[in-house]
Amino acid sequence: MVGSATADEGKRSFRTRASAGTARRARSMRASSRRVLLAALGPDPGELPALAAALADRLDWNWILDRARSHKVAALLAARLDYLEDGLLPSRVRDTVRTVRREARERATWAQRTLQQVARALAARSVPFLVLKGSVLAEHVYGDPALRPFHDVDLVVPVPRLDEAEAALVSLGYRFYCPPAFVFDWVPPAVRPSGALDAPVPEGVARLLYRTHHFHFQYVPPRCDERLPVELHWHVAQPPVLPVPPAALWERATPTVVAGLPMQTLDAEATLVYVALHAMKDGRADFRLLHLCDIAWLVARDRSRDGWERAMALAAAWRTHHHLARGVEAARRLFRLPSAAAPPPPGLVAPLLQSCFRLSGDPVGGGPGHGPLGRFTREVLAEALWDLSLGRPPRRAGRRVLATARVRLARWGLLPGRA
After folding, report:
1. Element (H or E) spanning 265, and its range?
2. The pLDDT value given to residue 301
3. Which residues pair with 155 in a beta bridge?
4. Does 346 reside within a domain?
């Protein structure tokens, strides 16, 4: 009996050591894969070939490709991997890279056609507009529309011309998109749509809620139409997030050429401020590497002290300096960029933002499992840390946490529909 017990104990000890060894190897492989993914996404991929070669036997390509898709950077990753020597990529990965690149080029073609059609329809009605985000960044920052994917065309029009802009979209076959009720969980409880959470909201109700509490409509093309949806903005954020009038955007308008047509966009400083705001305002739950790539690539274009000071001055005037400083700092840490020309203002960014990422697991991959309750708890706490790192008062951060909890529970079907 003693011998049998000793043998059983030895087996358990062996299994424990084997399990610990497997866990260590998995952590090492994940860390190596993360390094290669981030090296492939930054403005300067110079270290990627040597790094991929040195870590070749410690890379989880399934994880790398999955994370890239999740963070909307698969097209950029594929373009960078396509230039690696054949021996560094397994054949199945090489095939995936080619597929992703082909699909990215096809989508970029349709994105350009969408913008061209919409721009001409607006010009025919003499409706001024600003083109934002993906369309401009893909062409003028990344230098190739196939590197920076986007899933809709973002335009800003003056509020008095909104009806004419909508008519232009309708003339192209677009229709107003009525989302399901759960989308409006961010509006005050007293005005939330009634009924089932997954039921589409009537157009009149959706329009009223968007105009009162939001900053854009969405228009979608007909079914099986390859054109992209269009977000028709009158502003770029809710007033509590960006407390400046729409006129402040138009004061920063500058001419450009996108998709071969002359149009207007935000100037360099306003673009950086807006992109950082977009990257940081929605919290850890909606964090995507694509948005920090945008910041990193913009910063890499102008590292002068004057450019940084102008951007910070504008961010201060728009009361978004926390978003800019935190966004640039997060991009610098992830992509190992040189320090900005001027340090961000003092604050809690380092301990809180780092704690947020640690709590969530990996800023590239998300936290481990441990069941729905564990994931939910980490996600809610991470949202609180993210908001506090942006300098928001604890009361406002608390409201954000409650809103996040409500939305997540609703999406998991744990909240009943409203009567």
Report:
1. strand 261-266
2. 86
3. 131, 232
4. no
Q: Is residue 28 a part of any domain in this protein? A: yes
Task: Give domain status of residue 392, yes or no.
Answer: no
> What are the pLDDT digits (tens) for 7-30?
666 656 555 555 666 667 778 888
Query: What is the C-alpha to C-alpha distance for residues 225 and 261, in angstroms, rounded to an integer?
Result: 22
| 60 located within any domain | yes
Q: What DSSP element (H or E) covers 14?
A: helix 2-41
Range of the domain at 51: 21-32+35-99
Paired with 362 in beta bridges are 366
Distance CA 229, CA 235 (A): 18
Q: Are 78 and 100 in contact (CB under 8 A)?
A: yes
Spatial distance between the Cα atoms of 304 and 274, rounded to a whole number of angstroms: 19
In angstroms, the Cα distances linking 368 to 16, 23, 114, 402 are 20, 13, 40, 23
Bridge partners of residue 265, in order along the sequence: 254
Quick: pLDDT tens for 124-156. Answer: 999 999 999 999 999 999 999 999 988 999 999
Q: Under the phi-then-psi rule, with left for phi > 0, alpha for psi from -120 to 50, and beta for the rest, what region is 371?
A: left
Q: How many Cβ atoms sit within 10 Å of the Cβ of residue 362?
A: 14
Q: Which of 276, 267, 367, 268 is CA-nearest to residue 321?
A: 276
Angle at 82 between CA 96 and CA 37, to 5 degrees: 80
What's the token pair of residue 180? 């399901």
Q: Are 206 and 179 in contact (CB under 8 A)?
A: yes
Q: Long-range pairs for 350-359 at CB < 8 Å and ≥24 separation?
A: 352/385, 352/386, 352/388, 352/389, 353/326, 353/329, 353/385, 353/386, 353/389, 355/385, 356/284, 356/382, 356/385, 356/386, 356/389, 357/284, 359/385
Residue entry with tokens 């690696």: 84
Instruction: Pick the range with the lowest mean pLDDT from 92-96, 313-317, 384-388.
Output: 384-388
- DSSP class of residue 58? G
CA dihedral of residues 263, 267, 268, 270 (deg, nearest 10): -120
What is the pTM (predicted TM-score) of this model? Answer: 0.81
Per-residue pLDDT reduced to its tens digit, 233-277: 999 998 888 999 999 999 999 999 999 999 999 999 999 999 999
Nearest 10 degrees: Cα torsion 32, 37, 42, 46? 60
Please give the tally of structural domains in the chain: 1
